Structures are given as structure tokens and as C-alpha cells.
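INFO  loader      accepted 1 record
INFO  loader      residues=166
INFO  predictor   begin
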Amino acid sequence: MGMYGLRPIGGTLQSDDEEEYEHRLAAREARRALNDIRLAEQPDPALVRKALRPRAAAITESHTGSSAQTSTRPASATRSSSSSSSPKPAKSAAPVRTGAVDVEEIQTRALALLDQLSAIDAQLALVAEQNGLAARARRSDLEKQKATILRTLAALEKARLSASGS
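INFO  predictor   done
INFO  writer      dumping C-alpha cells
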């Protein structure tokens, strides 16, 4: 105990409180586990952000389907594109087909979103009984997720109506 009765901040394991001692041991083990799984070379943050965007995920899925088309390109074209240090983003990266809307795809996405919505509602029911700052933050996060899913469902319904109306 230092002046004013405060403990010094640091990594010592000397403590009068057993709970604090256990907490520090658990933190040390967690830090060790995280350091064990850490990558030797961190990925480029721009590539990570790009990979996490849902539109980028849709693009990569469409490119895996068209990989047979890319293999028919001349070898000189593939060499010149792979020699550049960073991939150049295409102007029409995600072509939107307005003429062909797959109603079955819309329905499968809507059903998946409804499953997510029911799971979020169940979690909201559990968190509603709890009090405290962490419960309020979790409740707020779940309500934001629910609002996002409802907006997406509305957009899917609008797309379904426009597809069936035309």
C-alpha cells in the first residue's frame, strides 16, 4: 500500500485480495494465449477492412464462380496484373443486375434474417431482466442489430414486390 492507501499499478502478483490475484493470473494466461496465436506478420489493415465489407464478400463469391473465365486469359495478362504491388480496384466491382431478380434468393435471405431476428429477440428477453451498465450496452447493441435486420427485411420485401410486379 502506497501513500493514500492505493495499490501501485503494475504486474505484481502481491495482493491481499484473492479475487484480484485470480483475476491477474487469468489475465496473464489470456495474454500468453493471445501472444501464442498472434501472427508473425500482421496483414495490411486496408485489406482487412476491404475483406470485412459485405459488398467485398459478395464480389469475392462472384469471382470464385468466374475463376474458370480468368484462367483462359493469356499468360502475359495474368503476369502483368500480378506484378503490381497492390490490386487495382475495378470501377464496376459489383455489377447489379436489375433485369433478373431471383425471388427464391430473396426468400432464403429473408428466412435467414428472420432466424437472426428471433435469436436477437431471445437474447433481448434475457438481457431485459438484467440491470447494470453492461446489460444496458448489450441491450442497445441488440436493438441496433434488430433495427438493421428490420431495415434489410424491408429492402428485401421491396425488391420482392418490384420483381413480382414487373
